Amino acid sequence: MTTRQQLTEALKVHFGFDKFKGNQEQIMMSLLAGNDVFVLMPTGGGKSLCYQLPSLLMDGTAIVVSPLIALMKNQVDAMRNFGTDDGIAHFLNSSLNKSAIDQVKADILSGKTKLLYVAPESLTKEENIEFLKTVPISFYAVDEAHCISEWGHDFRPEYRRIRPIINEIQERPVIALTATATPKVQHDIQKNLGMTDAVVYKSSFNRSNLYYEIRSKTTNTDRDIIKFIKSHPDCSGIIYCLSRKKVEELAELLQVNNIKALPYHAGMDPATRSANQDAFLLEKTDVIVATIAFGMGIDKPDVRYVIHYDMPKSLEGYYQETGRAGRDGGEGRCITFYSAKDLKKMEKFMQGKPVTEQEIGKQLLAETASYAESSVCRRKTLLHYFGEEYEHDNCGNCDNCLNPKKKVDAKDDLCAVLESIAALKEKFKAEHIIDVVTGRETADVRTYHHDELEAFGSLPKTDRRYLGALLRQATIAGYIEREIENFGLVKITAKGKEFLKHPGTFKIVEDNDFNEEEEEVAVKSGASCAVDPELYSILKDLRKKIAKHHNLPPYVIFQDPSLEAMATTYPVTMEELQNITGVGAGKAKRYGEEFIKVIKTHVEENEIERPEDLRVRSVANKSRIKISIIQAIDRKIDLDELANSKCMEFGELLDEIEAIVYSGTKININYFINEVIDDDHQEDIFEYFKEAESDSLEDAIQELGSEYSEDEIRLMRIKFLSELGN
User: Fold this and answer.
1) CA 388 from chain center: how many Å?
2) Which residues make Cβ contacts (< 8 Å) with residue 614, sequence separation at least 6?
3) At what angle do helices 411-423 and 494-501 cross, to 10 degrees?
């Protein structure tokens, strides 16, 4: 039996550490004693060591089930660096050829190998099961154990088969480890692995060195990211995007702006992906742009910032990804760009999945939206989500705490909400409760006759967003709870019942405002978005003059956002002008000279120092996807078919075509328009845009009326801009 002293000595000999972190020692002693162990430890807490060191001290080979090939390679390399014999650690997965697999098996049979990392898919192969039956096994470690649960952020069905396979090979102690698990996910893991009696070690989820901030996603997000990176020179950072396409585009944009960045996603060929990861670990590149769906599996301690270009699908995912910053205890900045529109898009992608999966996905997205929009301390909200109470109201290291909002008294409103929950017999979700108290006669409210309840309309003029904030903050305060297993049904706690009998003070902060309509207005508000309102005004006059000369509406020449960008970055060469969003080579050639001349004069006369360092270069507008769209249109491919072939919705394809046309490229979609829009409608819409003061879709829909569909108007706007503007 290994003693604590022997364990500490082994730690020094094998890994060079003098003492254990947190619960590590108790976890290892428990595993060495032959117990099943469940470890809940945040990223950077030293989970891997909890099974690596015991494997060196026990007879036989430890089997580590891990979902990521990259992570396995990383950990095997690390283990080999600690010892002298490469055979001490191996992995078995689809990346190995037959001779490499034979070498792994030979090392295991000779007793050299103390740690064998296997992908769950490899563990289920009959030949591997038969081989492992012949091997003395010390214990099983299930890493990233949240993959077992449908409620986890990275559910992997093959993880559900681990327990039956362990039973088939040979029963030995199991240690399950995860960095992110809500109480629900923890229960799910233990139940599925048949380890409900396991000794549970739960470390605090509080990473006090991490700064959390949510920013509104706007048209300037790329510029904001570039500015942020340039203000943190020589720092390592990770940027997460939801799609592979965005990863490629953003990595290219950063490179064009002289930032050392590389892409990383599952669609790349393995050699390039591996080379990019190594370049990041060896600090040959500063930034990795990666997909959220593909875990990086890296152990780099000095990542100084993690940026989410898109809000993750769940708070578990968010917590794990932000947790890759500041693992050395130093500063870690976690910046996330949030748009409710993105979450709606994610919800659409769930359609077609099983109903249960959709319900779970929707609830996880709702939790994410709540976190993003909330004005409560980010740390407090996150820790509450993971079943931990944070005692302080202000952590001093998140955007909400550094810019606190004034609290409003919500005692009476909370009482009204609690009474409604009781009247609804605690069988409904937050949305339905808000419908009832505000007196909203939805189909569900009428079906259940809840419009006949006394509580119906008890808070008739109260803002829904405010009530959403109240419900969330009442949950954190412990007055209500949401039953996760029942998809978020709201129940009153004992503390809530006591509050109803003897109401005390209850103050809340209202949510942050991420109203996207307002955002759009802000983006289009003209001079206020330009650094130099005077130049913006001069450029508008010039645009009007050129438009009059060509007998065109001004927006056909350049759109407002392009003028705003010109009045901010002062382009004085044709190349610089082409880098302005919405300009492109075609428009620069046609109208650019006069604009450059005016900007040059303005800069010289006012002795303006141009912000060269902050000038964001854009990647040439004719990116690969745009070129392929232009080629398909030249071949007269039906636009519906084209959208399907690009895995886009029709509206997304129109977005791409509009961008092509706005940057000055002439295209001809008459072949498609003539098929889907009758001649009278074509003529009416075309005439409207000839007379219109702006290209606003909303204005056009309002003016033309409901008999013209949005797609018809957009298609005709493309035709109009292409024929007359380009």
Assistant:
1) 23
2) 226, 227, 230, 569
3) 120
pLDDT of residue 621: 44
Domain that holds residue 194: 4-202
Query: Rounded mean pLDDT of the chain?
Result: 86
Cross-strand partners of 241: 291
- Helix then strand then coil, in percent of the chain rounded to 5, is 50, 10, 35
Domain of residue 454, CATH code: 1.10.10.10
**Residues 308/250, Cβ–Cβ less than 8 Å:** no
User: Using only C-alpha atoms, what is the Rg of the chain?
Assistant: 30
Quick one: how far is CA 648 from the chain centroid? 20
Alpha helices, DSSP H only, in 177-256? 183-192, 221-230, 244-256
Nearest alpha carbon to residue 246 among 315, 381, 329, 342: 342
Q: Which helix (H) or strand (E) holds 716?
A: helix 710-720
- Domain end among 183, 202, 221: 202
Average pLDDT rounded to a whole number, residues 606-622: 59
- DSSP states of 541-597: HHHHHHHHHHT--HHHH--HHHHHHHHHH---SHHHHHTSTTTHHHHHHHHHHHHHH
Q: Is 138 exposed, middle or buried (0-12, 13-18, 19+ CB in 10 A)?
A: buried
Q: Residues 6 or more apart from 111 whose CB is under 8 A from it?
A: none
Backbone angles phi, psi at 241, to 5 degrees: -125, 155
> 604: how many CB neighbours lie within 10 A of its CB?
10
Q: Examine residue 144 and state whether it is found in any structural domain, yes or no.
A: yes
Residue 397 and residue 476: Cα distance in Å, rounded? 19
Segment 142-164 shows an average pLDDT of 82
**For the segment 2-57, what is each residue's pLDDT rounded down to a tens digit?**
788 999 999 988 888 888 988 999 999 999 999 999 999 877 678 889 999 999 99
Q: Minimal CA–CA distance to 326: which of 228, 239, 211?
A: 211
Strands 61-65, 115-118: parallel, antiparallel or unpaired by DSSP? parallel
- Same structural domain, 11 and 118: yes
Query: Does the structure show a pLDDT above 70 at 522?
Result: no
- Terminal Cα-to-Cα distance of the chain (whole angstroms): 81
Residue 398 lies in a domain: no
- Residue 518 confidence (pLDDT): 37
pTM of the model: 0.65
